[in-house]
């Protein structure tokens, strides 16, 4: 038997500078030792341990074949081929005599690849688990060595120390797959107690007191002077806080350096060592023209960069010139000079000669034939003066940019020789304060593609690509189109498992002038296939749930697009914190590769608490007084708590317990959510149990116990349908209208209702939309066939649109229309009375019609008998709700102060009506018993942007609020009213002024 380690050693040494010398020696020795086997037939080839390559990759790498003669060169090439796969650390070839030929054995050491990095143990963020897993810089899918684990452990410990966890320990462990090819890393972390800051040690020329610097760090709690816990973000935030403090003192070149963090183990305290160089005060001012400090900070970049150099000052010069030209000073001249440091101050002066203020009165585009003027103007930044732009929008930079934008438009459509120039006319129309700009376009000839030839690919691909490419016969010719075609071709092959596809495009003039022939030479390269999909990291989730989302199977083309889609599908389950994916051995010369998904499950329990506040006029039932039928001013604090159990039973379902408590409403709910119902990612099934008690209507307090099931189907990104069946028990209490004598309103009513809701949402931002539309249509029917004690149909339609008038000006409008149509009316009740109070439409308030307090719109108690032949009584004026509604809201939204505070001008119109036939747009109320007319309100609002949506304050003036006749007194006095002792009613009215404070846009 001849040991062939020489061939393996030769392969390793080929990477060194002594390659040719070593190869010559080993080739001579190998040739001498293989003489007795050279040319003999190979009867068997073995691998020790068993080979791990896909058969196709093994056949590609191995140059020795069973039944073929043995040659030393083939053995060396086989070693080269096996090493090129990236799957082997070491290879030794052995050959020995065997009956009738030679037995060849490859002794190999396989390469391990990282398949998973899991962090276990309790670690209180920061750092979070994702940061811990990434701290070691272990590359998923890449080769893994034991020294990599030691390095990762050290990096992880350092990350923990940076976050004050000096007592933390990290214990790494490695599990390996059965074939030994994949390594699964687990990092067991014990965090220990987090250290706190100590008084920092300050060095250098500080210019500020230690107390001021310490306060700027935020490392100590004010007043009580407790030291905060150490975190990496807090440490760097403290350094940035010091830098900001110096910047506030105009020391823009101040430097703050963290030299070290000294840890005292006995006290668990960390002392930061800081070196500070304050530098001189920097004063930026303007000469000959005055600009505010806010403008200077915005346009002179020394403030943002915290440095002063000539490049930044030149950039500030250019920015100020563009700013002043945009303000109408088109002849402005800006220069700067830097004064020497004197008395610890360096002065930078921008000398500004503004010249006369002008306006851009007219913009002319001429010479264009291929494109309409409107198409060109919409790409231009300069704009003539208008109502929104008092002086127009113009600067030299804008003008040159528009020239380039127009030229690019023509270039992309085949006009290779286009010339775009512009001229500025002063004293336009003989007015010294007006200018005009003329854009002149010399289009030149349009270049056309005569023919397109695709080389290097089969006919099927040619047929598909020819339909997708921009440079087809008869199309305009442009280099931009060729670049787009290159991206199209590369993407086409990349998504089909050809990562090494190559594209080369050439063109040459055709026989006809300004016509070209285009040739694309495409080399798809070698196709990659999925050998298998390996998922790791799951503890509680059932593997079947994951497998359903994995669309790639062994033998499929390895498409990175499909790989990312699988990752997104797993994220869409909503139960995984991270889903990392990689291709194992991405650089190895193999065509069949494993696809890895390393998954970290999210916390199964989440607690969400919320606190809110509503301020306005509310109608809350009272047992002691009925003197304020229009409601009274009040504050309603709110607290909510939701407990979510994710991934219930390991199948991706979610259980939620929710609670809400305020002075207006108490609600408890239980929800069971089945996402991806019947394996459709856009379909979900929801079961809900609900208890709700609402007090925000003067007339009554409603209570609802409900069970419902809802099927939601998403048809597209913007269109969703919901199908819902609810069975509920509704009841009223605290009824203060005279129908205390009518028990039907006090008795609980069972409602069984089936409803369908269509939702079309094309808003750019649901919490604060600036463009798009939002439509909903809710249609439901309740009847005895569903076990309901009341029968009625219900329709509620909503249409909202959002139009950006300018960059910052938005016109928003919303229209709502609703109808309740009773049928099968019980004996003794009218159609209106057959609908229970809690099922009727109520409106008014911050989210519907701001001319009314909350839920105070629509019909009211007028003292009329509520049953045929029933007794009449004194009118209370309390709202009764209605069976129809119409609201129309219009808002003009605009910036008010800075980036976070906006303003709104609004107009609301509409009302809640007693029935569909009584809907009216009359402006005037006929009498104090007439509530079926359109109430209008105008007003002003302020919006403060927050991460959860805008906080808003609305002040409304109702132009034509309703008047009413209402009883003043106690409920007991009201019950004593009758023919013998009539009660006195008092004329009242809804206030002209309303105000509301809440969160979120009105619509």
- Main sheet, how many strands, which sense, barrel? 16 strands, antiparallel
> What's the structural domain tally?
8
Please, what is the oligomeric state? single chain
Distance N to C terminus: 86 Å
How many helices in DSSP terms?
Answer: 18
Dominant shape: globular
CATH class of the largest domain, please? Answer: Mainly Beta
**Superfamily (CATH H level) name of the largest domain:** membrane protein fhac: a member of the omp85/tpsb transporter family
> Strand arrangement, largest sheet?
25-26-27-28-29-30-31-32-33-34-35-36-37-38-39-42
- Chain-averaged pLDDT: 88
How many E strands?
Answer: 42
User: What class, by secondary structure content?
Assistant: alpha+beta
Helix content: 10-25%
The fraction of residues in strands falls at 35-45%
Which residues form runs of ≥5 with pLDDT under 50?
1-33, 738-743
Over the alpha carbons, how many angstroms does the gyration radius reach?
39 Å
- CATH topology of the largest domain, by name, is Porin
What would CATH call the architecture of the largest domain? Beta Barrel
